[in-house]
Amino acid sequence: MWTISRLGAEEARAVLPELAEVLRDCVDGGASVSFLPPLAWAEAWRFWERMLSGLAEGQRILLTAQQGGQVVGTVMLELSSAPNSLHRAEVQKLLVHRKARRQGIAEALMRAVEKAALEAGRTLLYLDTCKGCAAETLYRKLGWVEVGIIPRFAKQPRGFCDTVIFYKHPTSYVIRKTPDAKREKNAKRGGRSPTPSTGGEGSVSGRAMPVHPG
Ligand SMILES: CC(C)(COP(=O)(O)OP(=O)(O)OC[C@H]1O[C@@H](n2cnc3c(N)ncnc32)[C@H](O)[C@@H]1OP(=O)(O)O)[C@@H](O)C(=O)NCCC(=O)NCCS
User: Fold this and answer.
1) 41 in any annotated domain
2) Which of 82, 106, 171, 184 has its CA 20 to 30 A from that of 121?
3) Through-space distance between the first and last CA atoms of the chain, rounded to whole angstroms
4) What pLDDT, in 10s, does the model give residues 3-47?
5) Domain co-membership, 32 together with 120
């Protein structure tokens, strides 16, 4: 059993050692998330200290997964602050401690982060991940769209890894009515057909993704 929560800066400070432990465990387990193993405790701590200031200033959203009273997973959103990109945010540091993996925690965090993004008015999300890692499989499962691959993007203990860039609208946009669909419907009713289309997109509607309970 686990729960997903959104933490403010003060709440995050209270669990900073647990966040640092999740980061340390993931890096030492071979994850390509900015750091190289072995990750010193102080370095993990300093990373989260820096994140706290962004949280306090409203530039970030932090979600955690807690199990047995401990933080075992986390994900962040960095909200773009440039005037021309207030609709966009980057998903960062999806991390699940090795002891809590393969229970659906990362999937729940990703669904929750999409919901949080929508609530913050962010309709375009993007992220990058190491090619061939478990997270790549997860993002594809959740409908993230691959943009491309940058070769040798990040250093690893033995060589380099390529990175895959993904984006997603944090809604499942569905085409409600294409001109062709309208024409078919009208024809069935015996009404007049609208002008034949050349394949226009029609109107779209968005639907927020549900957050899975733990
Ligand atoms: C990637 C990571 C977050 C997944 O966490 P998790 O809680 O174990 O993932 P979930 O249990 O929610 O798995 C959801 C889906 O992800 C995929 N997945 C997760 N782990 C996988 C693995 N080891 N191999 C292949 N696919 C995997 C599967 O599609 C899975 O769905 P399924 O169980 O129906 O097959 C975790 O392995 C991790 O923290 N890795 C190190 C940090 C990292 O690389 N983060 C990504 C930064 S971009």
Assistant:
1) yes
2) 106
3) 6
4) 999 999 999 999 999 999 999 999 999 999 999 999 999 999 999
5) yes
48 burial level (CB within 10 Å; 0-12, 13-18, 19+): buried
**Is the CB of 105 within 6 Å of ligand 1?**
yes
Ligand 1 pocket, residue 189 CB under 6 Å? no
Residues 6+ apart with CB under 8 A from 10: none
Are 181 and 111 found together in one domain? Answer: no
Residue in the block written with tokens 């909200």: 79
Structurally, the chain folds into a number of domains equal to: 2
Report which ligand 1 atom has the smallest distance to the Cα of 127.
Answer: 48
124-165 pLDDT, tens digit per residue, is: 999 999 999 999 999 999 999 999 999 999 999 999 999 999
Range of the structural domain that residue 202 is part of: 171-214
- Distance (angstroms) between ligand 1 centre and the Cα of 183 equals 44
Question: Is 50 part of a structural domain of the chain?
Answer: yes
- 138 C-alpha to ligand 1 centroid (Å): 6
